[in-house]
Amino acid sequence: MKIDSKKIEEIIKKSSNVVITAHKNLDLDALGAILGFFYIASKLDKESYLLIEDDIFEEGVKTALNNIEKLGFNIPINKLSKTKIGKNTLLVILDTNNEDRIQNEKSINKINNKILIDHHVKGGVNENDYLYSYINSQESSSCEIIMDLLIDLNVYIPQYIASVMLSGIMVDTNRFYIKTTKNTFEVAALLKKMGADYNDIQYLFKQDFNEYIKRQEIIKSSVFVNKNVIIAIAEDNKIYDNDELAKAADTMLTFNFVEASFVIGKIDKNQIGISARSLGKIDVQSIMKKLNGGGHKTEAATQIIDKNIDEVKEMVIKLILK
Question: With 54 labelled, which of 176, 267, 281, 318 sits at a CA distance of 20 to 30 A?
C-alpha cells in the first residue's frame, strides 16, 4: 500500500492554511518530514507553519534548524499560541500516531481537519478522527514517505532540505543497516540527485563529546542475556535522554552474534526508559508492547513509572527468556 498523494493534495487545496507538526523531542527523521511537507503545502499556495514546542534539541536537529535560519529559508516556526487557526485550518501530524506524543496535544482538539502520516506500529489512534491517515510500519522512515509525496506531486526542495531528509532516512535505518527496501535506496539516490550533501550530513551527525563518553559508559555495562540478545543498564544516579539510550542500543546491535539489544536507563526522576533494537529475527516491538510500549519489529521503546532499575531489568530479562 502506497500513500495516496492525490487525496492529500485534494485535502490541502481545500484548507485555508496548514499547520505541520511531529512528535516531541524532534529527531532528524521527524524534522526532515515536516520540512518536506512544508514544501508540498507551499507549492499548493497554502500559508504553512511548522508547529514546534521543543525548547531543547538534539545536536543534529539544532544544527539543521540553525543552518536553515542562516541560509535564509522562509519557513515559519511557531508555537500553538502564536499559530493562526481557522475553521479550515489543516493539521498535519508526522512521524507519530501517539497523540500524547505530538508537539502540542492541544492542537488535536483545536484543529478539526487533520491528516496523520507515520511509519510506526499503529497504537490506539482513532483513524476516524482524520480526513486521511497513512500508518505503514513497513516504511523505513517518515522522510521516505514524504519523499514519495514530493515525487508524485513534483515538488522541488532546496539542496539543504534534501540533506536533512536524507539524514533522517539514515538515522531511522541506522545508515541503511535495518528496515531498508529497494524504495529506500531509490529515494535516497533521488535525494542525492537533488543535491543532498554528505558533508552537510556529517555535520548533522556530529556528537557532543561528553554525551558520547556517557553513551560508551552505558555500553560498557552490557551483558548477554542469551547467545544473541544483549542488555545494558545505565547508571542509576544519572538521567539520560531517550535519544542517548537509542543510540547505545543501535551501537550494540553492531556487535558480533547480537540479534537484539536492550538499553535501560532513567529518563526522569521517577521514569525509566527502555530502548530496543533488532536485526529482524527477534520482534522487539512485541516485547515492548507487553510493557505498554510500541514501535517496530526492529525498533521499539517504552517508559515505566515508579519502578527501580533492577525491577525493570528483571521484567525485561523475563520477557526476553520467555
Answer: 176
Q: Is the pTM of this model over 0.90?
A: no
Q: Return the beta strands (E) in the chain as ranges.
A: 17-21, 47-51, 77-78, 89-94, 113-118, 132-135, 223-224, 229-233, 260-268, 271-278, 294-295, 299-305
Burial 88-112, CB ≥16 within 10 A → b, else e: ebbbbbbbbbbbebbbbeebeeebe
- What is each CA distance from 197 to 166, 170, 174, in whole angstroms? 9, 13, 18
What Rg value do the Cα atoms of the chain yield, rounded? 19
Least Cα distance to 230 among 313, 139, 137, 134 occurs for 313
Cell numbers of 33, please?
Answer: 518530514
Q: Mind listing the domains of the chain with CATH numbers?
A: 5-204 (3.90.1640.10), 211-321 (3.10.310.30)
pLDDT of residue 200: 97
Predicted confidence (pLDDT) per residue in 29-88, tens digit:
999 999 999 999 999 999 999 999 999 898 999 999 999 999 999 999 999 999 999 999
